[in-house]
Amino acid sequence: MSKTFAVIGDPIDHSLSPNIHSAAFRELNLDCSYIAYRIAKGELEEGIESLKKIKIDGFNVTIPHKVEMMKYLDRMDESCNIIEAVNTVTNDDGILKGYNTDMDGFLDPFKKRNMSVKNLKVLLLGAGGAARAIVAGFAKEHAQSITIANRTLENANKMAKFSNELGLNANAVKIDDVRDSAKYYDVIVNATSVGLKNESSPISLESIDPKTIVYDIVYMPMNTDFLKKAKDRGATIIYGYEMLLGQATRAFEIWHGMEAPYNAMKKALLGGV
Length: 273
Ligand code: ATR
Prior knowledge:
This protein is an alpha/beta fold. It folds into 2 domains: about 5-100 and about 245-270, Rossmann fold; about 105-240, 3-Layer(aba) Sandwich (Rossmann fold). It has 9 helices and 12 strands. It has helices at about 15-30, 45-55, 80-85, 100-110, 130-140, 155-165, 225-230, 240-255, 260-270, and strands spanning about 5-10, 30-40, 60, 75, 90, 95-100, 120-125, 145-150, 170-175, 185-190, 215, 235-240. The strands form 2 sheets. It has a 6-stranded mixed β-sheet. Strands 9-8-7-10-11-12 form a 6-stranded parallel β-sheet, with helices on both faces. Helix 1 (about 15-30) runs antiparallel to helix 9. The two termini are about 30 Å apart. 2'-monophosphoadenosine-5'-diphosphate binds near residues 127, 129, 152 and 175. 2'-monophosphoadenosine-5'-diphosphate (ATR) binds near residues 131, 151, 191 and 194.
């Protein structure tokens, strides 16, 4: 029987998820379709009712519904519980179960490179929704410590508290205070939205060692100034599209119970960026 999947959010017309998942269906000859469905803020409850009516098999959740979606779940995976946000839902005869694949998606590029973050010192720029999944990922993989640098110190403080509760030793600073401190860290992640509009790197990377791992979660443009500066220093760089693919392949595996066709999905994504 044919299956239907969706991504819900607003705005949704530029979502890359329909392309990525449709490429996977084609690659594996699955009788499935995946649509983008716009649900405005404040209309989530009705939106979900209509998805249930058409017996949607599963859906992804994006801005602005990732947190509010928790209210409409019947069950929650641990990933969703920890991060307190949902990005993937299964529908089993009307029973909705929520997952958050952003954490595993974030870690996926390290695994693909056979790199471990165990005992590494991390500098995380940003303290928004995406940063939460990233902190949970570093805690799970036993990084040594994390410095959370953010424009608004209060948000960094909250994120540091979350990290410490997960057992990952954290401190919070203002982003301006780490502008020249990149050399003290093994891994530097940009989880701010700086770069989306081609802005220059939020901190200086001039002093970093080539052994540093530099990861940007901004995926459009693919080559942000932050990553270009890291590449100039010979650092290992991880692109934002890799996290996007990581969360999509993990969602695919939850829904379909089989390994996702990574390369076909990557090709569809990079063709679209
Ligand atoms: P996401 O879900 O992608 O994490 P978000 O929750 O809106 O998005 O978080 C955006 C992050 O980018 C925040 O850390 C934000 O900093 P504030 O907490 O101070 O708002 C950061 N950010 C956005 N614009 C920025 C800018 N111009 N300079 C520095 N940080 C910025």
